[in-house]
Amino acid sequence: MAFESLSERLSQAFKKLKGRGRLTEADLREVMQDVRRALLEADVNYKVTRDFISKVTEKAVGTDVLESLTPDQQIIKIVNEELIALMGGANEKITIAPKPPTIVMLVGLQGAGKTTNGAKLAALYKKQYGKRPLLVACDVYRPAAITQLQVVGEQVGVPVFEQGQGDPVGIAKAGVEHAIAHGNDMVFIDTAGRLHIDDNLMTELCNIRDTVKPTEIMLFLDAMTGQDAVNAASGFNDQLGIDSVCMTKLDADTRGGAALSVRAVTGKPIKFAGIGEKLDGIELFHPERMASRILGMGDMLSLIEKAEATLDEKKAKELEKKMAQNKLDLDDFVDQLHQMKKMGGIQSMLGMLPGIKPGALKDVKVDDKQFNRLEAIITSMTPAERKNPSIINFSRKQRIAAGCGQKVEDVNRLLKQFEMLKSMSKQLSKGGMPNMNSLMKPKGTHSKKFSGQGGKFKLPF
């Protein structure tokens, strides 16, 4: 999970301030030393770390502890503000050209995930913003690069323009002309990468830039390469001039040093984050939400947005009604499992929940394949058994277990879990703790209005 080790180290540092009635300079120095070590161990750039510690210390020394906050909360508040500023302050999207098409030039080293994530990005703009994107294949050197772009383009429903192993500059120009002729309002140019920055690569990229005059040049960086990614960003920015960054494999980087360093080093914003291998595995990069995750405060807004993009409001209302009447059945249970899988699985959802301590999930491995086993058990039941599990006696359990290749004990465990879920759902629907289903609000209203004070959003539980 992204930033996991950094979150844990920061949590341990702030714990030293708990229970203190006042904050002394000695306390602050000790905690800042721990924060400094945590950042350096997370592979954050040394100069960025030094400046960050200096800013936090200056603010903390010159700030009175608010009456409503304890010393540890005050330091966390300041660190949170500085983390947000370090990562860019607010999310930024692709700059849209006043006259279409918007041309986005995708650049990066080999292995950074540029081709796949570039196609995902085009699909995101097609699905969420109603654009008509075109992918242009200008990587004519890497074996099967054009085929890779065609395959992923077909999977996400975005057309690909290619002219084989020709001149990349000419292909880029022809691709833009094709987009204009066919009404494509966004063009994503997939350029060649190298194992390292060299003169040939930069000359070619500069020639493409000067020919098609892109609206935006987006650099794709592999988050797991740490300071190597930051060095690559500096090189591309110095020689080519970049406008933005997409940080790939961010979910697999437990340290997060590159994500925390690249804005400060290049002055360019991280606009998107590549997460996971699924075709929808790309999302807007929100500095404030990332800071919240780093400090163990969860990321409810991202969780809510995932729900809104995934869940069916009509189904959610029907489920809420059945919960209130205590009429949940096993078909509903299967439907909720499907919804959770669409949202990325339990593991990714847990990391966004506030109150989950940093490091608490380090050794927790949620096997999402368990969903498939549960579904297999349920689909081995008759429609009558799924509607009314109380009729399932021992002989029926034996038949169900044999039909799905599981044990009777597994069937018993499922039925027991389902009864617990029914009981809990009835309590929650009567006004107890807010259930996941009550977290998803109707589509069309804006997520940022969520305040945690009676807001009704719905998620699949």
Strand percentage lies at 5-15%
Q: H/E element string?
A: HHHHEHEHEHEHEHEHEEHHHHHHHHH
Shape call: flat
Distance between the termini: 23 Å
How many β-strand runs? 8
Q: Name the average pLDDT.
A: 80
What value does the Rg take, in angstroms? 25 Å
User: Which regions contain 5 or more consecutive residues with pLDDT less than 50?
Assistant: 432-461
Number of helices: 19
Helix content: 40-55%
Record the strand order, biggest sheet: 3-2-4-1-5-6-7-8
Q: SS-based structural class?
A: alpha/beta
What characterizes the major β-sheet?
A: 8 strands, mixed
Topology:
Elements: H1 4-15, H2 25-41, H3 46-61, H4 71-86, E1 102-108, H5 114-129, E2 133-137, H6 145-156, E3 160-161, H7 168-182, E4 186-190, H8 199-212, E5 216-222, H9 227-239, E6 244-248, H10 257-266, E7 270-274, E8 282-284, H11 287-294, H12 300-310, H13 313-324, H14 330-342, H15 345-350, H16 369-379, H17 383-387, H18 394-404, H19 408-429
Parallel strand pairs: 1-4, 1-5, 2-3, 2-4, 5-6, 6-7
Antiparallel strand pairs: 7-8
